[in-house]
């Protein structure tokens, strides 16, 4: 046991664990149990700014827009935005934008395959959704729509995304530290975490970013913020 302990200590001083190397080579988004100390000095807003702009959809969206998003992105979820109704007590005026929720890529593919299209821009009734989408089908993770042929006339139709949207996604303020976000991700077992602005300004999007497990891996963060690696080395010394 003493020999094994000494051998492991010496090995870890020269290179990472073999398990860490395998996780890195396979690209598996494994999060460490505890955040790195330097993660307290970085906010999720800074992390979101280092990524491409977040891709959003409208509550009632055009088929052409959905097809374009699925073809040109690899994201597994998209924020759904709506125009807010008049809410005097909240001080929101008509035309303000609010976050309705988060819709999965698999559900968008399901909509296209079932051709659940509307000829006019409107919201659907509950019975229409239950008739077209059994709950067991929505549980399937299907994200390949290469075999779906959409006609030019169907491209101009609409899809009501409200019934298929998760209206209670986890959100964090843009000034929250990455360390806290990582702990939340691990404890709740999240797949996506939406970043919302600290101050909502008229005409501004209610979502400024979206984080996944890959974004919270220490290695990926250091690739985007190399100066943190230097500060990490100074503290270690």
TrEMBL record:
Gene3D superfamilies: CBS-domain (3.10.580.10), Clc chloride channel (1.10.3080.10). CDD domains: CBS_pair_voltage-gated_CLC_euk_bac. Pfam families: CBS. Keywords: CBS domain, Chloride, Ion transport, Repeat, Transport. Residues 165-229 form the CBS domain. This is CBS domain-containing protein.
């Amino acid at each position: 046991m003493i020999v094994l302990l000494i051998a492991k200590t010496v090995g870890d001083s020269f290179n990472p664990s073999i398990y860490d190397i395998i996780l890195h080579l396979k690209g598996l988004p494994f999060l460490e149990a505890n955040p790195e100390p330097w993660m307290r000095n970085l906010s999720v807003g800074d992390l979101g700014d280092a990524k491409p702009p977040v891709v959003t959809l409208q509550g009632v969206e055009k088929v052409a827009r959905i097809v374009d998003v699925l073809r040109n992105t690899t994201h597994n979820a998209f924020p759904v935005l709506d125009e807010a109704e008049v809410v005097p007590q909240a001080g929101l005026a008509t035309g303000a934008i609010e976050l309705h929720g988060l819709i999965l890529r698999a559900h968008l593919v399901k909509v296209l395959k079932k051709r659940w299209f509307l000829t006019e821009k409107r919201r659907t009734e509950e019975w229409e959704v239950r008739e077209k989408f059994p709950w067991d089908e929505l549980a399937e993770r299907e994200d390949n729509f290469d075999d779906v042929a959409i006609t030019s006339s169907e491209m101009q139709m609409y899809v009501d995304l409200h019934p298929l949207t998760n209206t209670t996604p986890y959100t964090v303020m843009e000034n929250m530290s990455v360390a806290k976000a990582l702990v939340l991700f691990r404890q709740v077992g999240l797949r996506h975490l939406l970043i919302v602005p600290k101050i909502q300004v008229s005409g501004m999007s209610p979502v400024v970013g979206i984080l996944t497990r890959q974004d919270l891996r220490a290695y990926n963060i250091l690739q985007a913020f190399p100066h943190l690696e230097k500060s990490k080395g100074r503290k270690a010394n």
